[in-house]
């Protein structure tokens, strides 16, 4: 469950736009977007799309799990035309419930197939990868664990942070469970939680900030949180760094952000145009230069930001299908009383 920077103020503006635009039931040259993605990047994409097409996009921002539950509750009467998420499980969940429409084949062709829905019900837009963020005054690179599994070891008691309610953490839990089994994953979560103690935080932004301030030595976050913090406070104020687990480790997970069209949408044509724009060179270039520090993954575009090249990453081989709907991770997090 991720808090977005400036969410309150920007959400208010988005709701005002939605009120003026009339929502999904309005004119045929408009659509309603439910977005769990970063506010600034989403707004940049929406503005460029509106300028290019003349189609008005009314945006509702919230955490992706909240929006997904809302869509399920609303059912066929949902005002949403498109859902844009940070991670693949919410889209997989809606697809499994039969709530998403097929994406145009021409749009799916923009993104490598391994980053898309296996049944063509949503398309991958961008990606991020899990890393360790550590305080450089408290830990040396040689002292870092090589596997996420080691964070359950007694030596890390009081030194690690955890954000069990963060949706970005769920793919890591699924990765552990798929590799070692659910019983081992639960034991790992319980030991990790015990080691974290009072350093149990609501989201990755808090982990990144607390590590940078020296309140805790180490945490697992997606890479862009550290880059965003550095951009916000300046390199001179950074007292932390990021590092990767060993290649293909269970904690080294690539997460895909994607978008899908609601089967109940009355603006199918406009929604298909929006997904096509997100995965086009123009849309991907916005992501490549944005301050979200995510990796563009479609239309052959590469990031313009000074971070590890996408092609050099060596994440766990877990697939989109294996990450599934997130239900396995949620069950384990609830059993560990982290949700």
> What gyration radius follows from the Cα positions, in whole Å?
19 Å
Q: Can you write the helix and strand succession as a string?
A: HEHEHEHEHEEHHHEHEEHHEHH
Strand tally is 10
The helicity comes to 25-40%
Secondary structure category: alpha/beta
Shape: globular
Q: Overview of this structure, please?
A:
Helices cover about 40% and strands about 15% of the residues. It has helices at about 5-20, 40-55, 65-75, 90-95, 105-110, 170-180, 180-195, 205-210, 225-235, 270-280, 280-290, 320-325, 325-335; strands at about 30-35, 55-60, 80-85, 100, 120-135, 160, 220, 240-245, 255-260, 295. The chain contains 13 helices and 10 strands. It has about 350 residues and is an alpha/beta fold. Helix 3 runs parallel beside helix 4 (about 90-95).
Report a brief summary of the structure.
By secondary structure, the chain is an alpha/beta fold. The chain has 13 helices and 10 strands.
Key features?
single chain, 339 residues, alpha/beta, 13 helices, 10 strands, 39% helix, globular, disordered N terminus
SSE inventory with pairings:
Blueprint: H1 7-21, E1 30-35, H2 39-53, E2 56-61, H3 64-74, E3 82-84, H4 88-96, E4 100-101, H5 105-108, E5 122-135, E6 160-161, H6 170-180, H7 182-196, H8 204-212, E7 218-222, H9 223-233, E8 240-243, E9 254-262, H10 268-278, H11 281-289, E10 295-296, H12 320-323, H13 327-335
